[in-house]
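Archive transcription. Copying these from loose printouts into the bound notebook so they stop getting lost. Printout 1 of 2:
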Amino acid sequence: MSNLNKLLNIKNSKLAWLLRLKLLGLRTELQEALKTEVSDPGSDICQELLQELNVILEAEYQSNNTEEIPSWEDVLEPISNQLDNKPLPQSQLKPVIQNLLAHKELSQYIGEYQFNCTDDAQLWNEIQRLLLRVPEKLADILRSQILKQVNILGATEDNVSLRQLAFPIQEHIYSGLKGNIQASGLCFSNMVNFDERLDIQKNGSELDILAAIVSTYLKFIEIDPYVHHALRSVDRFGVRSLNSVDKPKYITALIERFHRVKVTFHTDKSIALRARLDLDEAIHSLVYLPCVDRFSWWGKLQQEARHTLETAVQQARQAGYQVQIRPLWGTYADVYPFSKDDLQIDIGGIPGEVSACLRVYAKINDEVIPGRVLFRSS
């Protein structure tokens, strides 16, 4: 312990500052672990170790409480990227978001992103919501790196304090934080009800999945200022921010289309399929710029909604209708004959390819219903 004391007592040392953060984080983790591991054979020794840590940290604080503590700008090397000149939140999580924005692979999925929150609890959730838009493998790597960084700040992962979203199954989405930084996480839960505006209870059918996804969308519209829409019935001429006059219009359209699916669920299978196609369009018209990766959490949630169309198509065919369904992906030149009122964007994705299939192409008997896509300009 003597070398710990020596290093901690060196004034104006960046290494001493980092060591203190590590020790604070270790103390918090051990304190939390002892709350649940009271019968562990190492609990008595752990208590003694905590007392030693308290003595070390208290002594270090007393000897340095009149000195100026180095800021994170001093501890970290300057970060060079396209967002250097934009103001960043002044918070404990500032070094975390600096490292995140400097990640080269991430930029292709989030563009020139600027964090909106300044409170640590809200900022943690904004960071995690951002990672829901990138490929899950990359998101897992970044979450692991972020947790190591927040451990240095004296915070640890919290898998208990989770906000719940209604879904037919229990599923962890992202963790919260406890310790020096406290923030809630997020999960799917089958113990909470769908959004009351949908006026539906769980019944074990595919309506549960659709109600859960629509409820999730309605919640994210409330909390995420970066979400956009491209729903043709609201505005056919562009991708619009939902932090605008379009917000109530889109919400109304989404809820109305869900109600139409609900009331036609057990009626004529052709009518039911058309209602499902309209709801699927509203669901996939909730977008981010750049568009989310198809293998991100968001992309997989949208795919789960689209998979429910397969049952509606099968039921219509069994009722005697000739039905074709085609999701539109790939090179825009190849899908153009099957779409209408498409929108061109100039961010994210691959130039000349479809970035988002807003509406699938459908043919019911002799009636053709064109699809609709967002595509990246060449």
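Printout 2 of 2:
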Amino acid sequence: MRDQRAERLAQILVRYSTRVGKGDTCVIQSTTNAEPLVQALYEEVLRAGGLPIMALTPEAAAPALYELASDDQLDWIAPTSMWAAEHADVRIAVMADANTHELSQADPRKQARVQKARKPMLETVMRRSAAGEHRWSLTLFPTLAYAADAGMSLARYEDFFYAACLTDDPDPLTAWRRQSDEVRRLTEWIQGREEVHIQAPGTDIRLNVSGRTFVPCYGQHNMPDGEFFTGPHEDGVDGEVSFSFPAAYAGREVAGVRLRFEAGKVVDASAEQGEDYLLETLDTDAGARHLGELGIGTNYGITTATKEILLDEKIGGTAHMAIGASYPETGGTNDSAVHWDMVCDLRQGGSITVDGEQLQRDGRFVV
């Protein structure tokens, strides 16, 4: 029998997050590991009158690409993928890794090459999303791999994840709308301000956000959700930040990352684990050494780091920063094939000050 929480998650994603309607083309993208949730999504899109397009890949496809593909094959973008970026009304993507470390031996130069090749597709999706022409949502399906990374049994991780998605709410279709008031309030408070100053052990960084738009997040694009974010000025970031949790990108994990910025650019970078990969990614293109996003987590229902950024960046009492591409709707203009989020925990001696007024102290909002 299919887990009823997966059924409710599918309803939230289709009916609330992406608002699938009659005649909408909806790409459902995942691996074969997520079949129970994918099937629930397929059925829910049909009930909503949408036109589902299945885009499923086997688990071992990604490592095979980096092991076997020629340069021409790495540069190639499938016409179906480009069509989805240019024309699909909706995309629902479900992460479902059976092995979160399967790309740990992949050549980082090949990974950077693939990222560069897919940059036009990423730009198209971001542009269409900012214009309201493309609705998308990203979630995951609980697997043993995610549970192991989080240090939980699969059953406990399922409980943790589905609760974070509010699937246990008596009316899951309205749950995130009811949760939006606090995120909206904080977004309204910070909008129009000029400088964000973040301090924590190993972190003292200032970000110019003047004229930029802060976007509240309560279930449309990520599930689970809970943050507000913007794109800092590309040349307006100065100081040092130490990221608290391991950060994975394109199947590779780094830990103990420290970045130092001058006039918006990363001028010094180190990591306790995976430093070579970090430096290779920073050299992907000119934009990879600048920030594309500053986000502040608001989901206090997520209390522990899991090594999965979809959840970790939402933890109430944290801030995250992404090197690479900006989201156009924030007013950010940083151009890169990279978008890599990393999280700074502020719950033990951290603070966020905005134009001299304290927004958060020890992970709790004080405004």
